[in-house]
Specification:
The protein is α/β, with parallel strands linked by helices and 332 residues long. It contains 12 helices and 8 strands. The chain is globular, with a radius of gyration of 20 Å.
């Protein structure tokens, strides 16, 4: 049976035009796994609050990071896909959960090439319903619409994958020195989504993460990744912290918040920061604009003296081999 690999990233607008950004945000934020509110409440928030105002602001942010190659996230995913095709002996395609290239088109291309067995890797290291959960739901939904569905398998969260951690360790190490404070900033999610993942109701948003890593607890998986990297890098207690970024709306999200902590650090005597975001494997709006532009400016304005931004894994050779290893194991 002919096999293939599908790598799936989040997505990006077609361009920095406000209309294209609005279309992308409409698709993204209409997903009930992203804004997990009843339909009426989600639509009121989306069409009454977000879409009338946010597209122009987001378009401005995208323009700050857009390159001649277009969207950084899509470009880095293309380069990763190209590198994987050179290393693996079966075809590799890429898709985006939202926007293009779509999951449905990728599955049709596999089918037209005679591929019947596809392994999918959603490029999110830590599991959350809003990212990996939603992506795999859409993958299976699109597959069911084919007249002859493919045989699918999916890669679980790889927050503790040795080669993934190897790639981050090699990427981070050149940016470190003894007097820097290291911040591990993860994409935030609402606290209610973490609580929903606790089937027995035992989640305490923090305390339980110290001693266990439940299969579907996003915060616990972030902490596991962070502690693994702290140990590998030899960071001392007090030299690092874990925070969460990109919150939306007024409901409580996972804390502490990256943007607020950056304003407090200079007052604590921590004026040199190394910024890492291990929930992203491709540089994108959240890393390049939110962290490397806005967070940098805010930290320096608050009295910080140095802000070292660590790029994501992108098409780092260690990362390429990590993904290739996952694929070889799933498709022997």
């Amino acid at each position: 049976m002919k096999k293939g690999l599908l790598v799936i990233n989040l997505g990006s607008p077609e361009s920095t035009k406000v209309s294209d950004v609005r279309s992308y945000l409409r698709e993204f934020l209409s997903d009930p796994d992203v804004i997990d509110l009843p339909t009426l409440g989600r639509n009121l928030l989306l069409y009454g609050v977000i879409l009338p105002f946010r597209p122009s602001k987001s378009a401005h942010a995208y323009r700050a990071i857009w390159t001649e190659a277009g969207s950084p996230l899509i470009h880095h995913t293309e380069l990763l896909t190209h590198a994987l095709n050179e290393r693996l002996d079966f075809p590799v395609k890429m898709a985006m959960r939202y926007g293009n290239p779509s999951i449905g088109n990728a599955l049709k291309e596999f089918r037209d090439q005679g591929v019947h067995r596809v392994h999918a890797i959603a490029l999110y290291p830590q599991y959350s319903t809003a990212s990996m959960g939603s992506t795999y739901k859409e993958l299976y939904r699109q597959n069911e619409e084919l007249q002859d569905p493919l045989f699918l398998s999916t890669e679980p969260a790889f927050f503790d994958n040795t080669h993934f951690l190897d790639a981050w360790e090699a990427t981070i190490r050149p940016f470190l020195d003894p007097d820097c404070h290291v911040m591990f900033s993860y994409h935030g999610i609402p606290e209610r989504q973490v609580l929903k993942s606790s089937y027995d109701g035992s989640c305490a948003i923090g305390d339980c993460c110290q001693s266990q890593t439940p299969a579907y607890c996003y915060r616990a998986q972030c902490l596991h990744t962070t502690r693994s990297l702290v140990q590998r890098l030899g960071l001392a207690d007090g030299q690092w912290e874990m925070t969460f970024q990109s919150r939306l709306g007024r409901t409580p999200w996972l804390k502490p918040y990256t943007d607020l902590r950056l304003l407090e650090l200079p007052e604590e005597g921590k004026k040199k920061v190394v910024m890492i975001s291990p929930s992203f494997v491709s540089d994108c709006l959240e890393t390049l604009e939110e962290l490397n532009i806005r967070a940098r400016e805010d930290f320096l304005a608050a009295g910080g003296t140095e802000f070292r931004f660590v790029p994501s894994l992108n098409e780092n050779d260690h990362w390429i081999e990590a993904v290739a290893g996952m694929a070889r194991q799933a498709l022997p």
